Amino acid sequence: MVVTEAVNDASDSESKTCGKILVVLSWILVCLTMPFSLFICFKVVQEYERAVIFRLGRLLSGGAKGPGIFFILPCIDTYARVDLRTRTYDIPPQEVLTKDSVTVSVDAVVYYRVHNATISIANVENAHHSTRLLAQTTLRNTMGTRPLHEILSERDTISGTMQLTLDEATEAWGIKVERVEIKDVRLPVQLQRAMAAEAEAAREARAKVIAAEGEQKASRALREASEVIGDSPAALQLRYLQTLNTISAEKNSTIVFPLPIDMITYFMRAKEGSNNNNM
Q1: Could you read off the pLDDT of 89-126 as tens digits, one per residue?
Q2: Distance, CA of 126 to CA of 82 (rounded, Å)
Q3: Which of 44, 115, 134, 262 has a CA positioned 20 to 30 A from the CA of residue 108?
């Protein structure tokens, strides 16, 4: 172990010495080729970009550069541009088997951005490609743990769960997942027909219940009206006259006026009284 550490320390010191020599030679080259070297040494990145600089394969201290002008040494410095703007990834439709064994096709959209340019370059080969693949698998895993009715009715909750899961996983890649939205859930045709039939049956049942309640209320109103009319003979006569008025308003060629019941009762009582007097 002591020998290995000594060898590593020796190699590090040699690499540092070699690096210093190359840096000095690079500066000499810049000075000798002035002012043409300025076109190579000075670079510009936009407001939404950062530059991650590597010197002899190592990250340059100070983190990412930009926005604006930054300086690199020719031959020994390389840099990578990183776009910090929010990107949109449209997840293609994924065939998912739900918790209650229903196959559905689900697609979503993910909004993410690079929040640490240095980590996104140094820790992962392709941060954007890795984030997109992880979004697909996270969508399938999240949908597979929920029944169909939750997928259809709790999209906001599912989107929030996916956003937290993706953000936690991509933190080590320098990626910030800002938002996840479930776009569409496509059901099999047979299941759509079954759900439509179930909804239609439920609507018919509600319509029958409402109609029955209306009939019940109408029956109660008629009963109350009959009680009022029975208690007042004058009300019966007014109702009779109202009925005649309604019939006369219609365009009928022949109108039959019914004889009032009270009039028949009056004549029957008069006849009974005359018979009793004769006896």
Answers
A1: 999 998 888 888 888 889 999 999 999 999 999 889 89
A2: 11
A3: 115
In whole numbers, what is the pLDDT of the chain averaged over residues?
79
**First-last CA distance in the chain:** 147
CATH class of residue range 87-187: alpha beta
Q: Average pLDDT in the 13-29 region? A: 74
pLDDT digits 0-9 by tens, 180-225: 999 888 887 776 666 666 777 777 788 888 888 888 888 887 777 7
Taking the model in full, what pTM does it have?
0.65
User: CA triplet 148, 153, 159: central angle to 5 degrees?
Assistant: 95
Residues β-bridged to residue 55: 58, 77
Domain ranges of the chain: 13-82, 87-187
